[in-house]
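Reminder: ligand-aware prediction takes two inputs, not one.
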Amino acid sequence: MTVPPPGRLIIVSGPSGAGKSTVVRRLIECCQLPLELSVSATTRAPREGETDGKEYHFLSPERFEALRQEGAFLESKEVFSLGRWYGTLHEQVATGLKMGRWVILEIDVEGAIEVMASDLDPITLFIHPGSHEELEKRLRARGTETEQDLQARLKTAAEEMKSLAHYQYAIINDDVERAVDEICSILRQSQGT
Ligand SMILES: Nc1nc2c(ncn2[C@@H]2O[C@H](COP(=O)(O)OP(=O)(O)O)[C@@H](O)[C@H]2O)c(=O)[nH]1
Ligand SMILES: Nc1ncnc2c1ncn2[C@@H]1O[C@H](COP(=O)(O)OP(=O)(O)O)[C@@H](O)[C@H]1O
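Here is what comes back for the chain with adenosine-5'-diphosphate:
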């Protein structure tokens, strides 16, 4: 039996609305690397069109807390201070890496900094939309948040921008295909490192 080459961990952070999910989805489709998205757990409600187990594992707060107590999470955070939790499951990451996959964590800055301090040696990318005005425009156009949620996301975005220096690469998502090409090149260059 052939042993697969070792996997890599990739962290993608950036303000809500920057286009992380859009870019990551396209990257997985078109970059010729064994990429896979780590499906996080969350206590937030599914949006229209989201499926349990695909975008997230949607859990009750009780179930999430039980998993946290059991140590099932590599990291977990209350993002946006609205009482909703998000967490990366150890198992998702371990299984992917063991199979030689390049596992992508789409996580907030606090969670990312915690993983950066581990021995997992992630490639770290921070995606941003170019300006705060553009971010607000995208969030409003997406139309998935209440006004309270939207304001919390914009406030957190301003904070998250201050952490850009913690990341190896800053990507401006002004154009999805261009951003995807840039990230794909970065990942290809890091092959073998
Ligand atoms: N720490 C941590 N943050 C996460 C995780 N999953 C998602 N997030 C963060 O939570 C934020 C909100 O996610 P979501 O509610 O899906 O909204 P969206 O990013 O605006 O589509 C994202 O921008 C991510 O940065 C996770 O497993 N851990
Ligand atoms: N380069 C871009 N230019 C314009 N709109 C974009 C771009 N990238 C993503 N979007 C749109 O912006 C919104 C937020 O993108 P999304 O991928 O949901 O962001 P995030 O995952 O960072 O919260 C979506 O409606 C998406 O279609």
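DSSP finds seven helices and nine strands in the chain. Residues 147-161 form the longest helix (15 residues). We will return to this case in the review session.
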